[in-house]
Amino acid sequence: MKPVVPNTPENPYPKKAAVDLSIPATADSLYFTFKNDDVKPIYENKPEKGIGSNNWAVGPSKTNSGRPILCNDPHLFLTLPAYYYEMQITTPSLNVYGTCFPGIPNILFGYNDSIAFGFTAAGRDVEDFYEIRFRDSTKHEYWFNGKWMEATKRIEPIEIKGEKTLYDTIAYTVFGPVMYDRSFPADNQKDKYLAVRWTAHDPSNEAYMFYLLNHGKNYNDFAAAVKYLNCPGLNCVFASKSGDIAIWHQGEFAAKWKGQGDFIMPGTDSTYMWRGMIPQEENPHMKNPDRGFVSSANQLPAGPTYPYYMDGKAGPLFRGYIINRYLDSMQDISIDDMKKMQNDNYSTVAEFAKKILLMTDENRLDSDEKKYFEMYRQWNNRKDAEAKGATVFHEWWQALRDTIWGDEFGRTTVAMAQPADHTLVESLLKDTTYSYIDNINTLQKETLQDVLVSSLEKATSILKKKEQEDKMEWWKGKDTRIGHLIEIPAFSRYHVQTGGGYDVINATTENSGPSWRMIVQLTDQAEAYGIYVGGQSGNPGSKYYDNFIDDWVAGRYYQLWMMKKKESGDKRIIATIDFSN
Amino acid sequence: MKFITAVLLIAILSFIAGLFLPWWSIAIVALFVMVLVPMRSGKAFLSGFVGIFILWALLAVWIDSKNAGMLSHKIAELFNLGGSSILLIFITSLAGALVGGFAALTGSYLRR
After folding, report:
1. Which residues of chain B lie closer than 8 angstroms to A542, CB-CB?
2. B77 contacts on A by Cβ (under 8 Å)
3. CB burial class (10 A; 0-12, 13-18, 19+) of residue B42?
4. Is the distance from CB of B18 to CB of B26 less than 8 angstroms?
């Protein structure tokens, strides 16, 4: 499992942290005291989901054109009208093409005459909470470093339609604003005052990064541009016509000691404050690596030798794994290979899980269970739209997860999410007598064989119902929807016939997915392809409202037309706007 | 003959009025036409009803054809009409026709 940026001789990690990262002496008694938290048990009975994105760039050594190819597919919620607007901006000093979000005067995912750029979310934790001790409920003074300090107050008028304006008084501390108090408490933290330290509150100029990228000509321009990106952190991927590829895991990230900010921190002195920021040049990055490609898919940004604590929650790991596996083995890469890869439905979770699930003793199955077991055995691990095996796997795996984790996690007194897929896969492959297999609510000791059979039994009852409802095909069960912003059914597209899933490159889930797919080959005349979910019009009565959707579902692309001045009479042009008067 | 004249007058004048005034100008037109053309109340209602029904149906069909029926289909879904553009146009026309009919009826009562 490779991080976004592995430690390599040509792109080494910093030797040691620029900030002292020793854990405070009081941490055991004041901070890592989960048992004192009065939180209710939360058992997250859900498979690992979440929105992610993919991007990668392959270098000249790996392509059949001898030039880099950059690919990016950010996964957002699928909406109508679409978030995206496709656009070319041409001025005397600029020529850039790609998509933007309406209102942003720059191209966000795209390419110009020299370079191409794309993004995925960094997934870092840039928001920490501190428990403040106020002298009284007026919030005038709070205890800090052995004395009462005065809090600054700010009154926020919140105008409400048809009602009186609500005035909310916010207290500001040295940590930041008090986000949760007794009027607006955090869940399960009713009596606490929680101040937030969030990098989004720091001044920054991200729009300038996009401006510089739009004008960028080479790697140095790219590296200079990303310095303006503070929050949110992003994995910025880059390729240029001159043959360079690069990735920067960029943002303003606090230099944290292990565990800092994972929980609410004591706010009565400066011990637990952020001690400094990771110097920008020490953010994980990589230029022209020997392996010939850079990639990111929300996995961990750096390996264990990176000197700073990698906080936050990495997304599902398996997309990053399969992308790197493909790119490692591919040679002579063409644009068509990249199209195929962006639409790939191969699940490595399923591949690894198969080694476990096929251990099931068939003699212990009844005829229905046997039927589904056989359906699963013949499945090729691809979450294609029509695959019934994918549905069997989904239900069986879900039942197995619940059987293995449910008994223990049902008993916890603290909020804990179900462990991720890779934890279960790894644990069971390593040790078939893994202690969590046993159901702690029964007297006898369950074996792996027992839970495999009982979880398939559970899944079978669900699958039989699905079969009666004609929902065995993967796309029918997944039921992808492209919802209108205020969920007017007539303006939405429901029951979209797509494959994919959260753990495959084509990360199309029930309501999110690769909403913009882009491939740019940086030959002298850049050859670029792209498609997004929706259309260029926000008017539900327009044929341009949703005209890209069917092609997107089919995995097709449109060649992106970077228009030249002499093409202004081209017959593909359907309208012009004259701004001169 | 008088009935057809009244229907046509209401339809044509309402169309012209609609170019400059809000939709409810149809009521004013139907009322005034009935003040000018004396008719019994039943016939008056019918001429206002038919005049506006024809006008709005034609207008809706014309606007809908320019959009290839796309928007009307979606709006018909929104109104639980099974996505039928024709039904939506019928209901649109009916709404206008009722306004036209009652305005015309009012006009005929004013004559008395």
Report:
1. 70
2. 489-490
3. exposed
4. yes
